[in-house]
Structures are given as C-alpha cells and as structure tokens.
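A favour between colleagues. Tell me how you read the following sequence-structure pair.

===
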Amino acid sequence: MDKAQIDQVRQFNRTVTERVGVLHDHYLGRDRPIGEARLLWEIGEEGQDVRQLRERLALDSGYVSRLLRSLEADGLVTVEPQPRDRRVRAVRLTDAGRAERAVLDGRSDELAGSLLEPLNTAQRARLTAAMAEVERLLTAATVTLDAVDPDHPDAQHCLRSYFAEIQARFENGFDPARSLLPDAGELRPPRGLFLVARLHGEPVGCAGLKLPPGAPAEIKRMWVAPSSRGLGLGRRFLTELETRAAQQGFEVLRLDTNKALTAAIGLYHSSGFQEVAAFNDEPYAHHWFEKRISTPASG
C-alpha cells in the first residue's frame, strides 16, 4: 500500500477530528462525549435492537453497554428485553432523550454551518461534493464479503430479493422452475462457493461460483441490493470470484445474463469478459461471457 496514501488518510483524520470537536469530552457543548451523542442519533424514534446498534456502529459490546448505562442513568433511554425474545434487548429514547437529541441536532447544524461559512460558494460546493465522495468510499470500505452456505438465512434473503427483482425486470418475468438454477451442492466447497456481502451486519449482495471438474468456472446469481449500488460491489464480487477460481486452478471464467440487465452487461465488458456463443440452454439468457484468468504462480 502506498505510504503517501497512508499519510494522507492520517492527516485527513487529524484535521476532521479537530474541526468537528470530537477530541472534547463535552461534544457540542453538552455534558457528554461524542459516543453517547451518536447513540442518541442512531437509536432514532422507533428504537433499536442493541445488537443491531453495535453492528451498525462497529463498537465493542462492553463499550456500548457502558454508554447505554450512562444514558439510562441520565434518564435519556430505556433498555428492556424484547417481549418475544427476552435474550434480545431493545433501547428506546425517553421524552428527555428526544429533547436532548433535538438540542444536539441544532448544535450540529450550527457546527456544520461554521465549517461552511468562511468559504465562498464554489468552495462550499467543492467541500460538500468531496464529503459525499468520501462518505461513499468509506461506506464501500466497510462492506465485508463472507463465504457462507447457500442455505444460510442471509444467502436466502439475497436470493429471494434477487428473484423478486428479475421477476419485475425481465420482459417475460422469471420462473425459477424454468431456469438452470444451480442446486445448493454446486455452490458449496469443493464444487463451488457462495459469497454474501454485508454492510453493518446486514446482507446487501450475493454471488455464487461453480467449480465443476473438467469445465470452466461459472459465476451464478450475482446481485447487489439497490440501496448499496454505486459502492463498487459488483466489480468487487467479480474480482474476488476470479481470484478464488484461479486459486483452484481454473483458467476460464464464464457467466450468462439477460438483456434487461444493461448495467451488469456493461460491468462484464469493462471487467475483461468477452461475449461468446451460448454455452448452455438457460432460457433467460441473451448474452454469454467468458474470460481467461491467470492462475497464481507456483513457488
């Protein structure tokens, strides 16, 4: 990794933490650190499952418990077991907590205004556009790709969402019974694998890889949730699956797709895939792609 890039990230972090006041125990002039303030924002009007809150903020369970105890002692939140499952705790704002969050919102707006006020119109536009880009890239960097069993609940959630989307987008709908769907065994080691992308612990995409002996590797059922598009996950899936196939000694990677999936077709072209003659009888496919891949050098 480039040392200059590392240095730039560290400098950026120092500048941001100084300018937004997170170095102080009394964030935004209130009698609490930024960790407690952030929890008040994340809990929201409807409350939150404590486990989901931890995953959303990527915080240690002990640290979150200490923050919640402090907020509870101040009368700003309640933490109680869920009626349907007492092992699951839910946190909700009290009236005092909503009032405190409203104060924090107002002061946060003032802080944001103070960052923009010294700049001219063009500089403000540049800064806010750069912030949006940084947010998008940082969000992309938090996504994990995990190999799971295709029967895992997260995998099944993604596949159901994928089928519902292509049912709506394909010209003649989509019937799983007509498609050449791989069975679960074809997407389990050693015959294959199935990846799930997770953002803040929630599944936001999937992709399968068939590794049939004596035939090219094949990508199946690649999907990214609409809410997570624009994060580069499709290209990241392709790169990861290509690497996994090459590590298993495969030299050719294949996939097929429907003409309605124009963004996917563009992605395949830009990722080095070439259109080839049909290599299967998939009734929903209009385009077939193939790519030569390099196996890792031995020694």
User: Anything to note?
Assistant: Residues 116 and 127 are 8 Å apart (CA to CA). The first strand starts at residue 48 and ends at 49. DSSP finds nine helices and ten strands in the chain. The chain has a mean pLDDT of 92.
